[in-house]
Amino acid sequence: MFETIFNTDCAVTRHRTGPLARERARYLYRCASQGATAKSLRLKARSTVWVAARMSIQDFGWVSAERLREIVCGCTEPVVAPSTASTLVRSARAWLKFLGWWHEPQEPVPFKEDLERFVSWMRDERELTACTVDQWRYRAIRFLCWCADTGLNLATLQPRDIDSYFATYGVQHWSRVSSRHMANFLRIFLRHAASIGACRPGLSDSIQCGPRYALESLPYALDWEDVRRVIAGAYGDDERSVRDRAILLLLAVYGLRRGEVAALRIDQVDRANGRLQIWRLKRRQPQIYPLVSPVAEALGRYIDEARPAVGSAEIFIRVRAPRVPITAPAIYNIVNRRLLALGLQAAHLGPHALRHSCAARLLAKGLTIKEIGDHLGHRTSMPTMTYTKVDLASLRQVAELDLGGLQ
After folding, report:
1. Of 9, 208, 331, 341, which alpha carbon lies 20 to 30 A from 184's?
2. Are residues 52 and 134 in the same domain?
3. For residue 390, what are the contacts with CB-CB under 8 A and spacing of at least 6?
4. What is the pLDDT of residue 399?
């Protein structure tokens, strides 16, 4: 591996004969396979051999942040400049994590056993999606940490304590709609906790929340001309533009969720037969779409010309190393960055704005609520009903209805 990074025999020999040469070579090979540049590989190689030469046998297999800082900054010969120390620590930390030698103390989570049993129940018995499990685990941790910080015990929790949670923590962090979501979550969490004996029975029934009215909110759809401007702004020959254009078209044309775009695989795009298969996260089943020409062209150009040669099945790959599939949050960042660049104003500037725009466009074209719901992958018609409030053409027809002289 070192022979492909360095040109001189002296440098190759120094790295090959240095301590932990095999471990360093494995790491560099992994970085190279993920698209690291030659300059980046040389920097990583120099940093890791420098740190390895100053590690003791006791460090093999277990290095903490404090110990790494001691290795780098405690060196008296040569004295390391602050900027160089930061580079060495950053490079060595990534290498040690790759080896499994990095020790990062976890923040203690109160009532951890009860939390893990709840997570197992969500994942194994309820078979909730990974996204839902992560979100609910995060909410549970926040609640349990609040209990610990206020000196409360889960086993002796009282209804007034739940009210206090909403009145103190909730009022600072949640909107009215978010408070309702949190109340629904806490009912589920405390019902499960009661089933395993972690809290008193019936505690979940004491949770009350404010009313929520059907179709009370407006969708945050963009004007379709703005959607066209966003897509047009991603027209270019560089890898990022080609990739982003394909992503934007999938979101706007099919109204996909960001996780569905991130999970899209090459084998789900059937260009020969003009079909696109999407795994619907909410329905938990595949859905077949016709592969329309603009999307087929954008996907084909990215896959054939711009996509890096990596072994991942997912279509969309990071532009920078490590060259791994992009995540759902990265989809949000891509869309948000391009919407902000156009100076657009909306309640939400992310992938869901394009999903809402897709629904509003279909409604304006005359599709029924059922057809729009099926296109978006809704399980029921209720989520689709909110778009009827922004169908201005139909509302205008209602307003102009002749009431025959009635006042």
Report:
1. 331
2. no
3. 218, 219, 221, 360, 363
4. 39
Return all residues near 158 (Cβ < 8 A) that are at least 6 apart: 203
Same domain, 238 and 383: yes
Our answer to whether residue 378 is catalytic in this structure is yes
Q: Catalytic site residue 355?
A: yes
Is 103 known to be catalytic? no
Phi and psi at residue 246, to the nearest 5°? -65, -40
Tokens of 61: 């297999």
Q: What is the pLDDT of residues 30-43, one digit of tens each?
A: 888 888 888 989 99
Is 352 tagged catalytic? Answer: yes
pTM of the model: 0.69
Q: Which residues of 192-206 are buried (b: 16+ CB within 10 A; e: fewer)?
A: bbbeeebbbeebbee
- Which among 46, 245, 257, 307 is annotated as catalytic? 257
In the chain, what is the straight-line distance between the N-terminal and C-terminal CA atoms, in Å?
A: 86
Q: Are residues 33 and 124 in the same domain?
A: no
129: tokens are 């999606």
Is the pLDDT score of 164 beyond 50? Answer: yes
Q: Given phi > 0 = left and psi -120 to 50 = alpha, else beta, which region is 34?
A: alpha
Average model confidence (pLDDT) for the chain?
83
Query: Does residue 215 lie in a domain region?
Result: no
Q: Has 387 been annotated as catalytic? A: yes
Instruction: Tell the burial category of 105 from Cβ atoms under 10 Å away from its Cβ (0-12, 13-18, 19+).
Output: exposed
Q: CA 262, CA 282: separation in Å to the nearest integer? A: 15
Query: Hunting for tokens 């030659």 — which residue is that?
Result: 38
State the residue range of the domain holding 311.
Answer: 224-395
The CATH number of whichever domain residue 144 belongs to comes to 1.10.150.130
Candidates 46, 352, 361, 375; catalytic one: 352
Confidence check: pLDDT of 116 > 60:
yes
* Cβ atoms of 182 and 174 closer than 8 Å: yes
Same domain (yes/no): 202, 288:
no
Query: 373 and 367 in contact (C-beta within 8 Å)?
Result: no
Alpha-helical (H) ranges within 159-238 are: 159-165, 171-173, 176-195, 224-232
Give the domain CATH number at 329.
1.10.443.10
| Parallel/antiparallel/unpaired status of strands 102-103 and 285-290 | unpaired
Quick: pLDDT tens for 209-263: 665 555 445 556 778 888 899 888 888 889 999 999 999 999 988 888 888 899 9
CA angle 279, 240, 351 (to 5 degrees): 45
Contacting residues for 361 by C-beta, under 8 A, at least 6 apart: 224, 227
Task: Give, for 289, the enclosing helix (H) or strand (E).
Answer: strand 285-290
